[in-house]
Amino acid sequence: MARADKQAAVAEIAESFSESAGAVLTEYRGLTVKELQDLRRSLGANANYAVVKNTLAKLAAKEAGIEGFDELLTGPTAIAFIKGDVVEAAKGLRDFAKANPTLVIKGGVLDGALLDAKEIAKLADLESREVLLGKLAGAMLASLSQAVYLLNAPLAQAARLAGALEAKAQEDPSILAGGAGTPVAAEEAPAAAEAPADEAPAEEAAPEEPAAEAASDEGDTAEA
């Protein structure tokens, strides 16, 4: 490889390291061209799977500020440069390795920290970003629903109380006019109204006066 081409290749790999959220180193010995194509398709937009030369990858890693990669760069190497969900990419590589044991995950780097094969496997066991966001959204909606309920509960109680008072006022308007004491006065009013009715017979006795006059007339007659 010409020097210019070598420098361009190193710069390209270093840029991939710098622009990626993480990278997973694999040994693809024994995989067919079709299997490599299937692996790239399974990773989709989450990662760019590229076959690299170890010498160039070492130079690119150092240029990108990544240390400790040298011992991982042995044998036929391909690197999954992860630009999407790191967990999803790790799951894709793990699942493909289970179905195709010739793919060996050697380790990787995440946010500048080196990871070994076991740590990559643990990363693949985590829940994906979409699942975590879904759970977070569910928890937030639940909290929001509780907050709305707590805010609306006093208003609902006040509305029910107002409705009860309105219904009671329609039955007895004096509740709104005079408060608690008014209904008692209203109850005494009929008793006062009934009193004249009881005294009416006493007034009807007045017509008996002519009888007295008649007696007087009889006296006058007797004297005559």
From TrEMBL:
<feature type="region of interest" description="Disordered">
    <location>
        <begin position="176"/>
        <end position="224"/>
    </location>
</feature>
<feature type="compositionally biased region" description="Low complexity">
    <location>
        <begin position="185"/>
        <end position="195"/>
    </location>
</feature>
<comment type="subunit">
    <text>Part of the ribosomal stalk of the 50S ribosomal subunit. The N-terminus interacts with L11 and the large rRNA to form the base of the stalk. The C-terminus forms an elongated spine to which L12 dimers bind in a sequential fashion forming a multimeric L10(L12)X complex.</text>
</comment>
<keyword id="KW-0687">Ribonucleoprotein</keyword>
<dbReference type="GO" id="GO:0070180">
    <property type="term" value="F:large ribosomal subunit rRNA binding"/>
</dbReference>
<dbReference type="InterPro" id="IPR047865">
    <property type="entry name" value="Ribosomal_uL10_bac_type"/>
</dbReference>
<dbReference type="Pfam" id="PF00466">
    <property type="entry name" value="Ribosomal_L10"/>
</dbReference>
<comment type="similarity">
    <text>Belongs to the universal ribosomal protein uL10 family.</text>
</comment>
<dbReference type="InterPro" id="IPR043141">
    <property type="entry name" value="Ribosomal_uL10-like_sf"/>
</dbReference>
<keyword id="KW-0689">Ribosomal protein</keyword>
<protein>
    <recommendedName>
        <fullName>Large ribosomal subunit protein uL10</fullName>
    </recommendedName>
</protein>
<keyword id="KW-0699">rRNA-binding</keyword>
<feature type="compositionally biased region" description="Acidic residues">
    <location>
        <begin position="196"/>
        <end position="224"/>
    </location>
</feature>
<dbReference type="InterPro" id="IPR002363">
    <property type="entry name" value="Ribosomal_uL10_CS_bac"/>
</dbReference>
<dbReference type="GO" id="GO:0006412">
    <property type="term" value="P:translation"/>
</dbReference>
<dbReference type="InterPro" id="IPR001790">
    <property type="entry name" value="Ribosomal_uL10"/>
</dbReference>
<keyword id="KW-0694">RNA-binding</keyword>
<dbReference type="GO" id="GO:0015934">
    <property type="term" value="C:large ribosomal subunit"/>
</dbReference>
<dbReference type="GO" id="GO:0003735">
    <property type="term" value="F:structural constituent of ribosome"/>
</dbReference>
<comment type="function">
    <text>Forms part of the ribosomal stalk, playing a central role in the interaction of the ribosome with GTP-bound translation factors.</text>
</comment>
<dbReference type="InterPro" id="IPR022973">
    <property type="entry name" value="Ribosomal_uL10_bac"/>
</dbReference>
